[in-house]
Write the structure tokens for this entry.
Amino acid sequence: MERSLFISDLHLTSERPAANEAFFEFLEREAPGAAGLYILGDLFEFWVGDDDLADPLNAIVAGFLANTAKAGTPVYLMHGNRDFLIAEAFSRAVGATLLSDPTALDLFGTRTLLMHGDTLCTDDDAYQEWRKVCRSEAWQQPFLAEPLDARRNRMLELRAKSEQDKKAKPPTIMDVNDQAVREALRSHQCARLIHGHTHRPAHHTIDVDGRACERWVLHDWYTGGGYLAVDAAGAKLINLPRF
Ligand code: LP5
Ligand code: MN
């Protein structure tokens, strides 16, 4: 049966080689023959601009994804909060289609909403403020004009600030807001939501105005990854062996 695959939050970095290997193996083993491979954000630990494609790991990842696309599996890429600076040059190199967040589509007969998931965390005010700033042209243009090393250093500062801030945030603030989930499903008239970001893989059922809906949360790939496989019969979360 035809199926599509969904992953997110791989956070690929040269500092976690086992996760990188698991991803390459996943691409070679599971992606061939799939109707689509959907990467719903945070493929990379961070992305400071498409001119960083020469970085060895970035080049290898782009190569594996390009092979997947060339072999006939359409690759779709959505931005996460770590790699929202991925742009046309990277997508072209990979042969991937950039998807906006959110994207609604008909998936084997079920209207499905795809998101990274960060916009659903509406109780995290500090993050939502930062998100507005860093997604603006006014911020991105001068940032991208800085040299690569300077951008990497600024990103490391920001990572440190983010980790420090997260320690003070109650875990519930860093999860999705129930009303935000309902509103997303309602406004896009979808019966299924697939997202990542919270690193809390799960299958939730939810009643939206009397409609039975479902929410699938994707794995992160820190100590063992996973993926969601969807076909006409439904969706299934599949764990990869720990690494
Ligand atoms: O990423 P994760 O899951 O650990 O945490 C997120 C939120 N944090 C972020 C920040 C990223 O981790 C940083 C990496 C982005 C790299 C992009 C490349 C461009 C670099 C630009 C460098 C200037 O997204 C975290 C959420 C959490 O998810 C759960 O949802 O809580 O949010 C934060 O921690 C944000 C802070 O609360 C607020 C940060 C304010 C920053 C103010 C500007 C300081 C600039 C300093 C650097 C120059
Ligand atoms: Mn994320």
Observations:
- The chain has a mean pLDDT of 98.
- The radius of gyration is 18 Å.
- The chain has one domain: 3-242.
- The longest helix spans residues 148-167.
